[in-house]
Specification:
This protein is mainly alpha-helical. The chain has 5 helices and 2 strands. A two-stranded antiparallel sheet has the order 1-2. The mean pLDDT is 79.
């Protein structure tokens, strides 16, 4: 994560920017007749994308809230691929929250 963010984490302004940089931002697919299906983009940082995918797979197996989420989304008719795409975006959201630079507070002396 730190390699992708680099020395300048301020350049990653939103979680959508980080998702595009990693390559897991949703991309619309189909001819417009499929009801808004999406897929994950093919570009981005390959190693980080792989690490996030592995994180999601491990969570789907051992993390109880994620297991419950997968069961709920499967009952709604989502495919495993769609569920993984949503979970990858959730992991990016968590990572972006951790990478955000701390808010600079003016000191009392100045």
């Amino acid at each position: 994560m730190l390699v992708v963010a680099g020395d300048n984490p301020e350049r990653i302004r939103s979680e959508a920017t980080l998702a595009e940089l990693v390559g897991i931002a949703p991309v619309p697919t189909g001819s417009g007749m499929t009801g808004g299906r999406r897929r994950v983009g093919h570009g981005g940082h390959r190693r980080l994308k792989g690490a996030i995918c592995k994180t999601v797979i491990v969570r789907m197996r051992f993390h109880q809230p994620t297991i419950d989420y997968v069961a709920r989304r499967t009952a709604e008719g989502r495919t495993k691929r769609e569920i993984i795409r949503c979970l990858e975006r959730y992991v990016i959201r968590e990572v972006h929250h951790l990478l955000r630079p701390a808010q600079r507070r003016p000191s009392a002396a100045s």
